[in-house]
């Protein structure tokens, strides 16, 4: 029998010789029944059954006698249950179907052609060759990947049947055209599955006889296979079709064609249902056109407990029962409009519910608490798929935020996320959309700073000391060089310049002096020293250059000690305020940022526009103002206790600016940061930038002093408010503060400021 339009290493001879020999042996031992004896007589009249049926016409002519001969392998009682037939492996040639297989093929339609899924001519040829290798050469090649037939049923749903072969009745016989393989040939074949030309070369077409027959058994693996296909074909790029794909699987699981479904995500911390941000147009029966809602308000209490505490499916075999629910909630109002049956299935991942799958059928009893258990094989994969979509969308949002806005404080992240999600949705619909500016209106600013006292003077002094040491070393080397090179004019010029710069360092230090001396050393002195060949000076010159290294050179010692001092102070101050900020966010979520310079500055913005769900009140503002005062006090006190161990024991000053009016802040895309919005609000920034250098009115003393916090304000109401905070802090610390109050000098365009000075140490 030749396979139509298909190359094969086999020439097929459909033979039933083994069955006939078994029957002959049974008759010869007198164990056969009369029917079997009569059957053998009839079989002997058809020699083709033993020698081999060569074509489809012969097979058709012998179907009746073959059915009787095969009856021991196809018991009549099992015909309604077993899905079974005689077959040639890996082909669509099969016959003698059981009744159940006949029904399956009839339901598929007369025009349906059964073929193995994803199994082309390449796979067929090589799998056939592997059978030969295992049978004749003793190899143990495992080529048994799962094979499936995909067959539609009466409702148009695709059912998946796994194929198992019984090849006990097959023999393989080499022909004259077959090639005897060497061990090297076999090794080459094993390493070259994709080289079809090699396989055809070593296994020529029809070079072996495949004699006998095989039995094919099919097993209904529809549910498992549908889930596997869902998992394999799942793609984050196909988020919009997730419900369509899910409905297709559910129709397969429940063997009906009229199932539909919806999806809601669930936030356990907030107890909120919401539409998926990765595909906001997805259907949800309960949410409908609402973006989100509180779960406990939408469901009756027992249902909420079942879904989220026990994490169990909820099923109603008839939605008529909804009318009997006592609680009048959204669930009842929604599903009173529908007829049929319902399942609500929680999506569970890491023992947390991340969403609810709504499954609806317009017919009663199709969905019920019993067959809801069938979802167990599918829901874990579905939950993982949804979580993957959530994560992918979050990553996409985060990438755009990072690109467009840089790192955003978590208190305002929601607003940036909201804007980016709108941007993504518009882009996916091919609509033009520009990211809008992010503005928060009516927020109260809280500004404070801890400044390192005398940091500029200490830095200048460190530079002076280091440069003096370096110039002294240069002077000494130049004097030694001059004794041997008295006539070199460049040496004299270098020595004169060195003395001039040394003199400048002993006087008032100018900002430009460091750069001038560094340029002189790099461009004049260093090339000169490198040109000196005298052997008696080489060690001293090498030592000089080692001392110029910033990392550990002697000429940078004082600057390193200064940098270490500033870095240590800033790190300690930052650590203290950052740790305290965690507690402050519990008062009410607010925007917070800090900057490290010669000390630590911070900005806080708080208001209903930043935290719309918390119900901002003046009480929150007062609590944050006291937190700020207490935190700055802690920062100064901790520093004073530790400063003695610093290379330079510098002190710190504290400053708080009280601003009475709410302002608007805008995220500046060009600078990737928040700034005040509008001319009126700009006054706040002006005051903030000028206040720390201000003097006490009619004096030459700065308003900030070491070890003290200066609170700058403008009204009596603010004065009374902060005197109350100071009294509260005094009681909390168990000690009194001798405060000082004074007026602040008038600044450009700013007047009427006052201050309270509070000693911390």
CA gyration radius, whole angstroms: 44 Å
Tally the beta strands.
Answer: 23
Q: Outline, from the CA principal axes?
A: elongated
Average the pLDDT over all residues and give the rounded result.
86
Query: Please, how many helices?
Result: 24
End-to-end C-alpha gap: 104 Å
Which blocks of ≥5 consecutive residues have pLDDT under 50? none
Approximately how much beta-strand content do the residues carry?
A: 15-25%
- Structural class comes to alpha+beta
- How many structural domains does the protein architecture include? 4
Helical fraction equals 40-55%
Biggest β-sheet strands, sense, barrel: 9 strands, mixed
Protein name: GAF domain-containing protein
Organism: Olivibacter domesticus (Pseudosphingobacterium domesticum)
Write up this protein.
Strands 15, 16, 17, 18, 19, 20, 21, 22 and 23 form a nine-stranded mixed β-sheet that branches. Strands 11-10-9-14-13-12 form a six-stranded antiparallel β-sheet. A five-stranded antiparallel β-sheet has the order 3-2-8-5-4, with helices on both faces. It folds into four domains: 10-218, no CATH class; 224-394, GAF domain (Beta-Lactamase); 455-556, no CATH class; 561-759, Alpha-Beta Plaits, CATH 3.30.70. The protein is built from 24 helices and 23 strands. The chain is elongated and about 130 Å long. The protein is α+β, with helices and mostly antiparallel strands and 761 residues long. This is GAF domain-containing protein.
């Amino acid at each position: 029998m030749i396979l139509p339009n298909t190359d094969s290493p086999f020439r097929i001879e459909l033979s039933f010789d083994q069955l006939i020999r078994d029957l002959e042996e049974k008759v010869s031992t007198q164990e056969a029944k009369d029917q079997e004896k009569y059957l053998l007589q009839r079989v002997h009249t058809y020699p083709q059954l033993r020698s081999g049926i060569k074509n489809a016409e012969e097979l058709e002519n012998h179907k009746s006698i073959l059915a009787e001969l095969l009856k021991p392998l196809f018991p009549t009682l099992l015909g309604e249950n077993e899905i079974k037939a005689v077959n040639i492996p890996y082909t669509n040639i099969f016959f003698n179907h059981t009744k159940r297989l006949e029904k399956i093929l009839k339901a598929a339609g007369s025009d349906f052609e059964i073929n193995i899924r994803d199994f082309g001519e390449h796979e067929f040829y090589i799998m056939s060759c592997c059978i030969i290798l295992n049978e004749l050469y003793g190899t143990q090649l495992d080529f048994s990947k799962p094979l499936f037939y995909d067959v539609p049923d009466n409702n148009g749903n695709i059912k998946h049947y796994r194929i198992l072969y019984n090849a006990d009745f097959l023999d393989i016989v080499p022909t004259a055209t077959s090639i005897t393989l060497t061990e090297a040939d076999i090794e080459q074949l094993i390493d070259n599955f994709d080289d079809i030309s090699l396989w055809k070369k070593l296994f020529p077409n029809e070079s072996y006889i495949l004699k006998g027959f095989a039995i094919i058994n099919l097993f209904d693996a529809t549910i498992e296979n549908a889930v596997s296909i869902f998992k394999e074909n799942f793609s984050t790029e196909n988020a919009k079709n997730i419900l369509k794909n899910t409905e297709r699987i559910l129709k397969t699981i429940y063997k009906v064609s009229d199932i539909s479904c919806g999806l809601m995500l669930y936030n356990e911390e907030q107890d909120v249902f919401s539409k998926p941000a990765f595909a906001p147009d997805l259907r949800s029966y309960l949410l409908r056109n609402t973006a989100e809602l509180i779960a406990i308000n939408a469901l009756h209490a027992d249902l909420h407990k079942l879904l989220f505490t026990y994490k169990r499916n909820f099923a109603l075999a008839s939605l008529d029962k909804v009318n009997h629910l006592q609680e009048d909630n959204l669930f009842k109002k929604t599903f009173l409009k529908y007829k049929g049956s319902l399942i609500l299935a929680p999506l569970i991942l890491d023992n947390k519910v991340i969403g609810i799958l709504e499954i609806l059928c317009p017919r009663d009893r199709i969905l019920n608490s019993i067959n809801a258990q069938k979802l167990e094989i599918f829901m874990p994969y579905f939950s993982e798929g949804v979580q993957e979509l959530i994560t992918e969308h979050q990553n996409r949002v985060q990438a755009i935020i990072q690109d467009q806005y840089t790192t955003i404080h978590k208190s305002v992240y929601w607003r940036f996320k909201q804007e980016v999600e709108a941007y993504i949705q518009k882009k996916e619909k091919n609509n033009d959309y520009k990211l809008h500016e992010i503005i928060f209106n009516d927020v109260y600013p809280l500004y404070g700073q801890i400044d390192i006292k005398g940091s500029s003077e200490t830095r200048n002094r460190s530079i002076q000391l280091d440069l003096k040491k370096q110039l002294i070393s240069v002077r000494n080397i130049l004097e030694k060089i001059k004794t041997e090179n008295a006539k070199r004019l460049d040496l004299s010029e270098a020595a004169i310049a060195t003395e001039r710069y040394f003199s400048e360092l002993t006087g008032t230090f100018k900002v430009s002096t460091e750069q001038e001396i560094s340029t002189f050393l790099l461009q004049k002195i260093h090339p000169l020293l490198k040109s000196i060949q005298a052997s008696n000076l080489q060690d001293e010159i090498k030592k000089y250059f080692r001392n110029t290294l910033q990392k550990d050179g002697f000429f940078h010692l004082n600057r390193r000690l200064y940098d270490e001092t500033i870095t240590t102070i800033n790190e300690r101050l930052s650590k203290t305020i950052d740790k305290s900020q965690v507690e402050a966010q519990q008062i009410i979520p607010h925007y917070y940022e800090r900057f490290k310079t010669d000390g630590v500055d911070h900005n806080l913005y708080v208001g209903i526009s930043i935290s719309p769900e918390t119900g901002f009140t003046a009480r929150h503002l007062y609590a944050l103002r006291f937190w700020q005062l207490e935190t700055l006090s802690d920062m100064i006190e901790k520093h004073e206790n530790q400063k003695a161990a610093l290379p330079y024991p510098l002190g710190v000053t504290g400053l708080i600016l009280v601003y009475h009016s709410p302002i608007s802040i805008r995220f500046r895309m060009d600078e990737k940061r928040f700034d005040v919005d509008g001319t009126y609000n700009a006054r706040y920034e002006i005051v903030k930038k000028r206040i720390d250098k201000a003097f006490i009115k009619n004096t030459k003393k700065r308003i900030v002093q070491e070890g003290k916090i200066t609170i700058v304000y403008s009204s009596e109401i603010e004065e009374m408010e902060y005197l109350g905070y100071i009294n509260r802090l005094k009681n909390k610390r168990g000690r009194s503060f001798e405060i000082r109050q004074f007026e602040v000098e008038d600044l450009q365009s700013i007047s009427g400021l006052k201050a309270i000075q509070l000693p911390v140490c």
